[in-house]
Amino acid sequence: MFKVGRMNSQRSALRRHPFAIALAAFVVAFIAWQVPQFDFIMYPLRLFVTFIHESGHGLAALISGGQFNRMVVFPNGSGLAMTTGGARWLILPAGYLGAAAFGALLFFFNNRFHHSRALSTVIAIMVALMAVLYTDFLSTAFLVGLGFAGVLGLLAWKASSDLNRLVLNVLAILCALNAVTDLFSLVRNTGITLNGVRNDAAAFSAEVMPLVPPVVWALLWAGLALLMLGAAIYYSLIHPLRRRRATREGASAGRGF
Prior knowledge:
257 residues; two-stranded antiparallel sheet; two-stranded antiparallel ribbon; mainly alpha
């Protein structure tokens, strides 16, 4: 009886383990956002999120038949994707929604399938390819892409699965909430530029839907980003737990019968 009880306790702890790492990632992300003393940690993460954001614009251009010429990440954390052709209605929202989709999918795969070291390797290869193919040599974007590729590759090689999962969760949360964290800037600035760089919501309103103000698009994209992250949390953490509980209760009922 003691052995069975101990095994059940260990299984229960393993099931809670992903929740603990996910919660720790949310805490880290929140502290990085809110505490000025941690700006030195948030700064490279912000550059990575911009890298993913601009990659979303570029990939949307390629998907819609256009060209992705190159992307720029500025030292202040803003960015620019230079594209030719393609569907503007798809390219313009693909920065925020692309980053949100990337973050949500990363969170889902990281927490649903426990292969975080392999996932770190895949993400490292992806960002390295984007840096080599679509940035200028030794530019900020180039250094951000290869820098994070190197860090993720090193984590995959040397670090534990738990540390890989924590880091990937933090990156996933920050990317998924890119539209939310930028919402206030987008709402305050309804002009065509934001800090000298095109404001996606204002550009979408001007080029695609002139009758709808930019603040509506900013709110809509932020809402969609929250929905994507919420779905990722539910289907990677909550739904599997509920299904295991239902299976266990069904098995217990069957034995009782």
